[in-house]
Amino acid sequence: LSSVFDSPSTRPSKMENLFSSSRLNFVFYLYLCMLSIAKGVATVPDSIAESELSSPVSPVSSVLSLISRVTPSIASNFTLVEVPTHEKDYFRLSTIDDHTIKIEGNNGVSLASGYNYYLKNYLNSSISWTGDNLKGVEHIETMPPVHDQGIHKTRHLPWSYYINVCTHSYSMVWWDWTRWQREIDWMAMRGINMPLMLTGQEFIWVKTFEEFGLTLEDLDGFFPGPAFLAWQRMGNIKGWAGPLPVDWIHKQFVLGKKIFLRMRELGMKPVLPTFAGHVPERFHALFPQADIHRGSQWVDFEDPWSKVSFVEPTDPLYGRLTTSFISNLINHFGPNDHLYNGDQFNENPPSRLDGHYLREVSFKMMDAMKEADPEAVWILQGWMFHFQAYIWGEGQIEAYLAGVENDRMIILDLWSELHPVWKKTKKYFGKNYIWCELLNFGGQQGMGGSMRRLMADPFEAAETSSMVGIGLTMEGIMNNAVMFDLMLDQAWMKAPVPVKDWLYDYIAARYGARNKFTEKAWDVLESTVYNRFHGLDVPPMIQRPGFHERHPDYNYRELFTALRYLLKAAPEFGRVASYRHDVVDLTRQVLSDVFTDHAALLTISFRVGNSDVAIDAGHLMVGIISDMEKLLATNEFFLLGTWIRDAQSWATSETQMPFYQFNAKNQITRWGPRDGTLNDYAGKQWSGMVGDYYHQRWSHFVEYLEKQLTNGKPFDMGVFYASCSEIEHRWQQTEHEYPTEPNDEDPIEISQQFISKYKRFALQSSVLLDEFDDLEARSSSTRTLSAFSGIKKGSILHESLYFIFALFAYIFLS
Prior knowledge:
- This protein is an alpha/beta fold.
- Helix content is 49%, strand content 8%.
- It has 32 helices and 15 strands.
């Protein structure tokens, strides 16, 4: 049996695993042991694949069930009619009598979209990731009538795509069926008809690799822990935080099948995985004549966690593996819609860059897919064309895409709002593509984006290129819902509408009514934090402590005004979940920006020799962390405890609990086995993370800084990093229970207190930063701390490096 733990010191015996499980699990494991005796290996039994299929459900029945889950009190007031058509997707709303709303549509997604339209525009109601508002439904006596002509909406473009490969790990990895069912309901209501469905695929890989002579033991170093599966699926890493428990593989397959079937019941066309070339190390020994090579190192992951083996698509083994995988996929999941995602070179450079090779490898991959499924269409993430643009020039991209017929590929232009690759590649040389909104990395929570650009750019692209849809490809959800809802609404728009018109309708549905104060609050937000480019924006609070010089890239002090307006609406909306979330989120953003400003103030005051200001800024930063913890603990959407609880819910015994806890904690902190590029990449401003992990690190930094300044000694970054690393290691290994429910404190009252407290500090930091900037600009002895930390000031080496740095800066700016 595959062990649950990575460390031999914590590896439980097989019998300990067996007897700590339920009686049913004991029988299941006993069955596996019997198989291992018979075959000499442990395996996943075929009986898992024979889980019951639900009987076919019509789109009308499926959407009626959805309505009963979302708004049970008015479910009987809707009549649904499916009218199949080969034209564009549509829905139509009309009134039958005082109590009944009729929704017509050509499929389940269209019917659900019509239902959502009625909720939003006639009942001022909504459901979202971050809180529902169903006030308009609670005590309704008569359904508001649709006007005599009815409402008719047609889909602007064929596809609404959803989910980045990374989202499955950053946001969805611990979800059970209840949470997935809610998400699928939300997808249908928001018009999503092409979701990426990856859950449970490890079962298919096991079945496929068994056909080629591998055992589960051979896969222990291949599959990583659950929190890191996305990057193994893309060929970046292997084995880290694993091996993957057998029971996880089983339960995820059963869950994945339910997800897949529900999506199809509602009329969605799920995108399934395909073989992209990445195989376990054992293949080198089993197939010594095959063209298999080890890939490149991915970021800071060294052996044995990276350099994943890759079968060249030109080798016959590649086609055999593809046929086997897709055949197993169809056999175990059932009929599908012929859409497959596979990324051969995601953040992994090809072995060669000549046009002939690139054309051949894409042709061979598509050819192998067609062999297994003659109607296969390849859904390709176009991330590599931006991320490794130094490799993928226009010629390389054209050659790679030329290997596949135009009607056999759809490209996800993954970061269209900021880096639209379609503009740099002659519209992908005629290939169809989907304009995607990425917005965040690692599920970072910072508010941001450009509503104005997002309302305009997709329409411009649709008029001038081979764009066939819009998509959401955020790495993590549960943030910036307004930006993603704006994107999805465009599926049913013929042309752009004024941003303010759309926004006022949106917040009326989000909170329950039109309100002058919420509208004024969002006017400020739309012109500041939501009127900027938003990229990789990791706030200093969640970064490893150090000397941070970045300022907020907008006038964040205006958010105090937005927050005051928002709080004025508390008497009307104070009990609405989505409103309470937004109060906490906006206050969190304000505190985070005040912290960022003071981190810059600490850095520059330290550099110009003003120790008192540096120490005062440090103490204030630690105080902000404590206050943010107090705020976040009041809301269910900002709790570390739920993330860890959901991870550990997959454990089948007490001995598995540390395994799942480590996966959950490592992803949001050190992200891997060592200090490196990804440290804090997926950090979260959650209660528990802020008050424990980040507070420990920043308190230690400020204490060490004050000690060194008081004693007249230099700040040794190497010494500090070593001790900070000990804090991080200890935290991710320590078992500690964090609250899974919000406390009884009032977030509205807390937010009001923080406005008064921190507005003054925000203004003071602005004045001090300007003064120190002027002082530093005049000083000929300015030193760049981050470049020369650890080098003795005044030394020949220090002065030489400073001169070289200044020279390069002058040349660059010139």
